[in-house]
Amino acid sequence: MKPGERILGVEGGGTKTAWALVETVASASGTEFCIVDQGRLPPSNFRLTKPERLRAIFAELPKEIDRAGVFLAGCRTGEDRRVLREACLEIWPKAKIVTGSDRQSGLAAALDHADGIVVNAGSGSSVTGRRGDKIERAGGWGHILGDAGGGYSLSVQALRLVLREYDLHRIELDFTAKILHALSLNNFDELVRWVQTADKMEIAMLAPVVFETAAAGGAPMMEIIEEGAGVLCEYTEAVADRLHLLAPKVVLIGGLFYRDSIYTHAFRRRLKKNLPDARITTAERAPELGAAWLAVEPHDHAAFHSKPSQIEINGLAAALTEKRNPRSENLEKMSAQQLVELFVREEKFVHDALSAAAADLACAIEIVTESMRNGGHLFYVGAGSSGRIGVLDASEIPPTFGAPPHLVQGIIAGGVTALHRSVEGAEDEESAGALALDERGLNSADVVIGITASGRTPFVLGALARAKSLGAKTILLSCNPAVAVTGHGGRPESTPPTCDLLITLAVGPEILAGSTRLKAGTATKIALNAISTGAMIGLGKVRGNLMIDLRTTSTKLRDRAVRIVAEVTQRDYESARSLLEASDWNLRAALEKS
Fold first, then answer.
1. CA distance 417 to 411
2. Do 502 and 333 form a contact (C-beta atoms < 8 A)?
3. In the chain, what are the domain boundaries?
């Protein structure tokens, strides 16, 4: 290994693919590792992820590397490692590749060369111990047969308990309301249907709700947590016994231990009963760094240091959307009446911003309409509030205009979960935005509108860059005028290089600094309303100001359809209804018959 080598460490599982790019640097104590970049991508379990999907994920990782350590959940056998290595060589043909399972990268990150036991509790679970050259394992058999004590197992047990208590006693546990709220569901039947189609990761992501309920005094949920911790303790004791470790170092890794101290405390308490001399600690180093370390021969002691960069942080701080609004600096001192009046006055900035962007919005309508006439689709891409507004507008197109659901699609960083609760770090990875468009089958006939109030959200910019590379039309909608001056990445360009059209809605600082769901959100919603409605009008789905392709899927919409037919054909209400019934409630067909 030489100074200046670039080493990629990748650790993949059922929840995410975490990666880190490091460079080797010479120091007085030997060779050290400098972390130059890192991030997260979608899940990459070797057993559960299709090979073509794995290659697509790997293709979004840094290309210029000298070595790579790629360690995935489910990569157990020599044949697995060979297949994984060949897939890696397709992406990095000149790099030295080391492959294996996430157990190995976790062991390396937690223990270096030392003896001890690593207990991993994330979406799944496993226990791995080492003494000298001897390795012992317990658990980690996957979510169907094993993974007791992991997020998936805890969530499934909690869901089963909810239904069992309801069936036996008609009791709705506190957890019931929390889980329905977390999933935006209304009743048990919807919950059961959701579970039947949910994958391992989606179910595992309910684990925080289990812990939240337990922390609030939910005894049944606390019993599930204690049982999960107990199983992991039994595995740990069995591994310690087989390795003859009387006072083992036990290192805890995985999201459940990092995020929920209640689980760490439960595990410590139970393990100390049978292994009182165990030294229990939480891992300080991420598994992807262990993966990078394993890519190096020989495996010296690993010293990792970050290479900080303030460019992105400074750029975000300079965004107008992050500034303080001088008219709202004393919010806590205002009466309710004063607060409402301030909100109403601030809406003038929304009106002014939209008026200033009228020509660009008209251009966007023309771009989208032309694309759809040629068989293209419209994709909104955003994160947080921006993403939710995009998904909302897309979801309204089919019922309003009778358009197929695939014609206008909303993509939000973090997926469906992010529609009703925050998904940490979902917006920070450009590659994730690119992959999201790949999953939707984007082609050159389509249009992508990236929505980001600051103009700098990596998920959105990554999606726009991918769309541009495929020949699709790209539009960036931002509320930060600085984007038009500096461009993407601070380059002195008039518009970001990844978009054909930049729409700036300069609404100014928010009443609550940085809360872009306020004026920025309002302006964004109106802008998207104008673009999508304008495109639908251009496609002939409106007559006058009436919807002539709306889907009559409810009593209210059937009544509206009757009134439209009566208005357009100058009939009375009953005659119009009869015409619709004869046309199987197809509004356009009824109008064509008249």
1. 12
2. no
3. 6-112+285-306, 139-282, 320-538, 546-593
Fold of 6-112+285-306: Nucleotidyltransferase; domain 5 (3.30.420)
Q: Which sign, positive or negative, has the C-alpha torsion 196, 200, 202, 208?
A: positive
> Is 6-112+285-306's fold the same as 139-282's?
yes
The question of whether 493 is a catalytic residue gets the answer: no
**Average pLDDT of the segment spanning 330-341:** 91
At the topology level, CATH places domain 320-538 in: Rossmann fold (3.40.50)
pTM for the predicted model, two decimal places: 0.76
List all residues 6 or more positions away from 65 whose beta carbon is below 8 Å from its beta carbon: 6, 7, 8, 21, 92, 95
572, two tokens: 């009375």
Distance CA 296, CA 294 (A): 5
Catalytic site residue from 427, 429, 430, 510: 427
| Run of H or E including 379 | strand 378-382
Q: 396-438, pLDDT tens digit by residue?
A: 999 899 899 999 999 999 888 788 777 666 787 888 899 999 9
* Tens of pLDDT, residues 183-228: 888 888 888 899 998 888 788 889 988 998 888 888 889 999 999 9
Q: Give yes or no for a contact between 74 and 142, defined as CB atoms under 8 angstroms apart.
A: yes
Q: Assess whether 396 carries a catalytic annotation.
A: yes
Of all residues in the chain, what percent are helix, strand and coil, respectively (each to 5)? 50, 15, 35
Which CATH number is correct for 139-282, 3.30.420.40, 1.25.40.10, 3.30.40.10, 3.40.50.720? 3.30.420.40
